[in-house]
Every structure is written in C-alpha cells, then in structure tokens.
Design brief:
With 189 residues, the chain is α/β, with parallel strands linked by helices. 47% of the residues lie in helices and 19% in strands. A seven-stranded mixed sheet has the order 3-2-4-5-1-6-7, with helices on both faces. The two termini are 19 Å apart.
Length: 189
C-alpha cells in the first residue's frame, strides 16, 4: 500500500507538500483535480494550483466520478488527488445522500490504497473550529470528518500539515496506552 493522506487547514501548505512528494516519485504523475471554477475567486485558486505543477503532469479534471478515474489511472503513475474536500462538497451539492457519499468515499479509498504506485490524497481538516450555525454546513463538516477518517484508515501514511510543517499522525489504537479499557480500545481500532 502506498497511500498518503495529507490533512490541514486552508493555506497550510498541504498542496505544496503533496506536489513535492509527487515530484520525487519515479515515473509519470497524474493529478485528479476535483475543483470547479464556479466564481472568479475559485478560478484564481485553480489557476494557482495549475501553475504549481510541472507541465508534463497529466491532469484529469473530475468533480464527481473520482472512483472511475482512480480505476483508470495507469498503475505505474504516481497519483495526486486534489482534493477530497471539494469532491465531498461537489457530491453534497449534486444531491448525493450521506450514505452515497460514504459508499463512494470508502470505494475510492479502497481503490487508492490498493495501488502499487504512490497515491497522495489531500483534504482539509474543517472540524476544529466553531459549530456552524446552519444545518448544511454542519452536515458538510460531519461528512468531511468521516471522509477524512476513512481515508486515514486506508492510508499507510497520514499527516497533519500546519503552517507548512508536517505532523505525522499515528493510528489511535497503536498510540493508546495500555491503561485504556479494552471496550474503548476495540471501538477505536
């Protein structure tokens, strides 16, 4: 398994780190870009990401059907998924149910983790702030928290990127001290 998940806040450096990891890989690089240019600010963000990548990388812009693209990428290509945050948002805005978003993310994480070539997935950590005041924002925050957890479980490496610095994340079950009751340990594993 060669899946790396990079989590972090906005402008934390996670995309820059992901591009750096992919650039060090041997062989071709494919990027799955999930963002859609729905306004001028988003168009500028997408353009900034494009400029940060080497021109010889293959970029597949796919806002919804990430699973199919994952299955079609050349097995020897390093794969960068930019990003799970926007993909989840796109699915939500397209009317997908929570169950469908769960199923599709689990499927995509499984495909990504079974690849032999390196795969780097990027996602925002949005659950550390205040509780949103509207139901849709709370639903999104909760869904993305679950999405990040599933991808972290599927990954063999996971890190939190803060202010351009990386903090490796360990599996909770491995990190727990021996005094944690077994029933809690079983729930976390």
């Amino acid at each position: 398994m060669a899946l790396t998940l990079l989590l972090g806040g906005a402008r934390s450096g996670k995309s820059r780190l992901a591009v750096g990891i992919a650039a060090r890989s041997r062989g071709p690089v494919t990027v799955i870009a999930t963002g859609e240019a729905r306004d001028s600010e988003m168009r500028e963000r997408i353009e900034r990401h494009r400029r940060s990548r080497p021109p010889d990388w293959q970029v597949i812009e796919e806002p919804l059907d990430v699973e199919s693209v994952l299955s079609s990428v050349a097995p020897e290509a390093c794969l960068l998924i930019e990003d799970l945050t926007l993909w989840t948002s796109n699915l939500l805005l397209a009317g997908s149910s929570d169950e469908e978003i769960h199923r599709r993310n689990r499927e995509a994480a499984s495909i990504a983790s079974s690849r032999q070539a390196p795969t780097i997935a990027v996602s925002n950590e949005v659950g550390s702030g205040i509780v949103p005041t509207n139901a849709m924002a709370r639903r999104y925050r909760d869904l993305l928290g679950e999405v990040n957890r599933w991808w972290a479980e599927a990954a063999d490496r996971c890190a939190l990127v803060v202010a351009g610095r990386i903090l490796p994340l360990r599996d909770a079950a491995e990190a727990l001290p021996s005094w944690i009751p077994e029933e809690i340990d079983a729930d976390l594993g």
